[in-house]
Amino acid sequence: MTLTDISDNRLIAQQVTATKFRTVKDIVGWMGAMQAQDYAMAKWAIGVRLPNSTDKAIETAIDKSEIIRTHLLRPTWHLVAAEDIYWLLELTAPRIKTLIKSRHKDLELSESLLNKSNTLIREALLGGNHLTRQEIAFKFQKANIATGNNRLYHIMLCAELEGIVCSGATKGKKQTYALLNERVSKPKSLSREDALEKIVRKYFSSHGPATLQDFAWWSGLSMSDARNAVEMVKSDFVSEKIGLETYWFPNSFSNLRDDNNSAYLLPAYDEFIISYKDRSASLPMGNLKKAVSSNGIFKPVIVINGQVAGLWKRIIKNDKVIVETDFFKQPTKSIKSLIEKEALEFGKFLGKKAELKHNIE
Predict the structure, then answer these.
(1) 0.90 exceeded by the pTM?
(2) CA 10 to each of CA 76, 145, 238: distance values in angstroms, whole numbers, following the listed order
(3) What is each CA distance from 284 to 279, 289, 296, in whole angstroms?
(4) What does the pLDDT read at residue 243?
């Protein structure tokens, strides 16, 4: 197995090359969780894995609470299937709470203040009310709870980690919060051991080949928990050592390459890039800083034959979307043709006409 094999098979495992699923919730459920702080790009992350889907269809799945957008795993936004949200929160929220304690001390967010905030949030959202961040901020201000200096973000983050709130239905073009227990019925809790086994199976099935370190990074678990989780399931997976790293993957790993050229316009923060601590299989160090900024901004990338070959961005103008590409080196005519097809698919996803523009020096 080579690094090229790893990259190709990650595209297969992540359902980018082709998918066996037909619904939004099945894609998200297979992936376990999908990073989603860039809301528009997070919807395309599903769309690129679900042919003939639309931005509207994915938003509808969120509005209907088939999938949920909230904070878990690492302290950032993720999309998860409704049936996975409670056990993932119970497993990963405690560690996130520990990581953000010092920041809460700086912001003077005491336990009593957070309890008061949570009570106010419950009262405001009870009965199926879905409120925007601005509407909730107004209620806090009326209750003399300061929301400046990033305090509102952390107050709502804590409410999410406590399982009080999650994403609500879109109001106009704005995101809302709603009560989690009104959006998703709470099932019987999993034991911690069962949750660890479930998350590790999901990760290596949907993201493999990957290493223990990759899994620990993606899940937000301690290295000790990650190692114990791998021990639980290692007899059901295959491992192979490359250099100093051991890669785990399902028995279905093909170790075969598609001889045809493939091209994808992957969104910012896509799982194909962000869900691995070591990204060198698809993103060599020489191009790393072009695709990932020093402050952790992951840009939309062009992936050619499993390798990040450039960047792209979208410009929306009324009923048209302009897709601008910026390749790291001059693309061939066949690659340009493939990217044109991908741009057209992106336009269909948005319900807009697509125009492709290559920025080549």
Answers:
(1) yes
(2) 23, 46, 15
(3) 7, 10, 17
(4) 87
What burial letters (b/e) apply to 234-252, b meaning 16+ CB within 10 Å? Answer: eeebbeeeeeeeebbbbee
- What residue spans define the domains of the chain? 41-183, 263-358
Give the tens place of pLDDT for each residue, 120-163: 999 999 999 999 999 999 999 999 999 999 999 999 999 999 99
Measured N-to-C along each axis, helices 151-161 and 133-142 cross at an angle, to the nearest 10 degrees, of 100
Question: Alpha-carbon distance 214 to 276, whole Å?
Answer: 5
CATH number of 41-183: 1.10.10.10
Q: How far apart, in whole angstroms, are the C-alpha atoms of residue 249 and residue 270?
A: 20
